[in-house]
Amino acid sequence: MHQACAIYDPGLLLPGDEGPVARSDAGCAHASYPDRPAQDDQSSLTVEVVLAIQSIDLGLGSDAGTELAPYGFDLDRVCTCPGPPSCIQEQGAPQTCDDDAGRDHAGLELFRELNALAPSSTEQTNQGLRAGQYGLLFDIQNYNDTANDKQVSVAVYASNGSSGVEDGGMPQPSHDGTDHWTLDPTYVVGGSRLAGSSCERNQGACKPIFFDDNAYIKDHVLVARIEFPFSFGTRTFLGGVVMSLKGSVVVGKLERVPLAGGGQSYGITNGTIAGRWPTRQLLSTLAAVPDYLSNARPFLCGDDFSYMYFKYRACQVADITSNPTLDNTNAPCDAVSMGFRFSAEPAHLGEVYGVPPPPAGCMTDGGLPFSDTCFGQ
Hints:
Blueprint: E1 21-25, E2 28-32, E3 47-57, H1 107-114, H2 121-130, E4 135-143, E5 149-159, E6 180-183, E7 211-218, E8 221-224, E9 229-231, E10 242-244, E11 246-258, E12 264-278, H3 279-285, H4 305-317, E13 335-346, E14 348-352
Parallel strand pairs: 6-14
Antiparallel strand pairs: 1-2, 3-4, 3-13, 4-5, 5-7, 7-8, 8-11, 9-10, 11-12, 12-13
Helix pairs in contact: 1-4
């Protein structure tokens, strides 16, 4: 997974195309995202935009050992290879290199290897998203509906399906901007006691737990810093895995799309979610991944061969600190960098609706959730 850091093609880094813009520093391009605008564009409007994720892309189209997809950002402001890493990697681990724009996205290599467990890979997840089985919503508020707004609010909610699933059915979304999506109670202040409450234009009753009140939009590119548990849904090949990123950022270009019955709203194509996945949390959540290669254990954990292999690989590729303030301080690499793509379409907030938690996966002999750390931690 060694990649060069000396060749830079600006065409790869246009907002809305490859996501970030580039900044030059000592001959190395640093993939980043737009700065906050100096001022708002003139507008008398204040609008709300709700977006439902319709696809994710973990760059699984290329084989292990080849260059990773150009997703993500330079999170530690260091271009590793030819430069040194920003933290101390696991003893004996080969240096994990950034790509030619300094992107920190080593976690994509792990997903390529996990992909061997199920040939359907993320397509199964995306089919579930399109079918309305589960989802993830972004709610943008206080937006002036122009190219530049220096402060907007962005909340994120997990969804347990498009509205109507509460009645025992599986309604098919229309994908025309009219769909309502349920909100998982663990993403709403008040949780399950709000079950059945409608959250459309009702933030007084449905306050988000995960949000950024200091997000912004520059040249139609949304930038929000939100740490939230990203789940791929219990019906996917990754089981109940939850990706809890530290220092995470959500970036995407807002593009106008027509709505059914007239009017317009916004969608996002080639959006990016990036951050730092602590190895302790990564290894613990592997316990929820079905192990299709083992007859001894149903999940990846413990002394199972598949788990030990992925633990070894995760610890080997750990390339960044979980705490951004520890970058370049000789701190150990205790996280794996992540950067992946998503697309989203206009939608509506629906009702608060919970479902039983996903299978816990592996448990300890004492009945506690499985947990683990890398060898040197």
